[in-house]
Amino acid sequence: GADVDAQDNWKETPLHLAMYSNRNDVSGFLIEHSADINCKSKDGETPLHRSIEHKNTEATKILITRHACIHSKDNFGDTPLHLACLNNNSKVARLLIDLKANVNEQNNDGTTPLHLAVLNGKYKIVVKLAENGADLSLKYRESNPPLHIACLKHYPGVALLLIDLKADVNEQNNDGATPLHLAVLENEIEIVEKLVENGADLSLLNKDHKTALDLAADQKNRKEISEYLAQKNERERRRSRSSRRRIRRRRMRNYSINYIPLRMEHHNW
Questions:
Q1: Are residues 45 and 16 in contact, defined by beta-carbon separation less than 8 angstroms?
Q2: Residue 89 backbone class (left: φ over 0; alpha: ψ -120 to 50; beta: rest)
Q3: What does the alpha-carbon distance between residue 247 and residue 121 come to, in Å, rounded to a whole number?
Q4: Which segments carry the ANK repeats (predicted)?
Q5: Is 7 buried (19+), middle (13-18) or exposed (0-12) by CB count in 10 A?
Q6: Tens-place pLDDT, residues 25-77
Q7: Number of CB atoms found within 10 A of residue 57's CB
Q8: What pTM did the predictor assign?
Q9: CA distances from 73 to 53, 81, 106, 199 (A)
Q10: Which of 50, 51, 80, 133 is close enough to 56 for a disulfide, judged by CB 3.0 to 4.6 Å?
Q11: What distance in Å separates the CA atoms of residue 55 and residue 88, rounded to the nearest whole number?
Q12: DSSP assignments along the chain, one per residue
């Protein structure tokens, strides 16, 4: 009989090709006749990679049921979970996470499934990844953590979620930019307010030696953000001055309580 695992010049088997055309009758037949479900093509993709790329959820579920390897990496270092997040396939992403796919696996350029979910603004996938231990601090292409990405991509819902999940609001990327710098540049007032409410440092400088308030003042159509940050900045300065005064008073009080009586005793002696 015919070899069900015969490979073409791209090392693709009939099962790989069935995934392209969404021919689930063919893929089912091949699997029933013991086709290798983990065979890799020239680019390192298994039939599971292909079924996810082509959003063939039915075939994906069949492959997983038949114990297709959910941790297999292609030549780019992408796992099936990476591809599910890249292709906005929430059902498959949730299924893979439930099956304990590594949520912090990094591909060849350091991208995690969380980076891809945030890049696509997929709130529910972000929640699922975070609930299962996704690292909020890993940087996308060695620069931007997930919160920075959400600010840059105009996804306030995802950004607010990441802040609530305790992502570092003062993390600086390779340009020295914090999430606050980026939210100001992208005119995302809701994110700006949430960051400030959760401890964003207004004094941090980017590589151009500018604070978020400086950026707001430099940009057109940032009046609302500029006024908000200026108000918060002034309030912070007052609080700082008040705190310094309290510290000075405390020191003077300690001095008068402890040091002056000692001097008097010494003098009397």
A1: yes
A2: beta
A3: 46
A4: 10-42, 43-75, 76-108, 109-141, 142-174, 175-207
A5: middle
A6: 888 899 899 899 999 999 999 999 999 999 999 999 999 999 999 999 999 99
A7: 15
A8: 0.85
A9: 14, 10, 10, 39
A10: 51
A11: 9
A12: ---TT---TT---HHHHHHHTT-HHHHHHHHHTT--TT---TTS--HHHHHHHTT-HHHHHHHHHTT--TT---TT---HHHHHHHTT-HHHHHHHHHTT--TT---TTS--HHHHHHHTT-HHHHHHHHHTT--TTPPBTTTB-HHHHHHHTT-HHHHHHHHHTT--TT---TTS--HHHHHHHTT-HHHHHHHHHTT--TT---TTS--HHHHHHHSTT-HHHHHHHHHHHHHHHHHHHHHHHHHHHHHHHHIIIIIHHHHHHHHH-
- Give how far Cα 192 sits from Cα of 128, 148, 164, 198, Å: 25, 12, 14, 10
64, 95 Cβ separation under 8 angstroms: yes
CA dist 41 and 51 (Å) reads: 13
Cβ atoms of 151 and 182 closer than 8 Å: yes
E strands, the chain, in order: none
* Structure token digits, residue 13: 């088997």
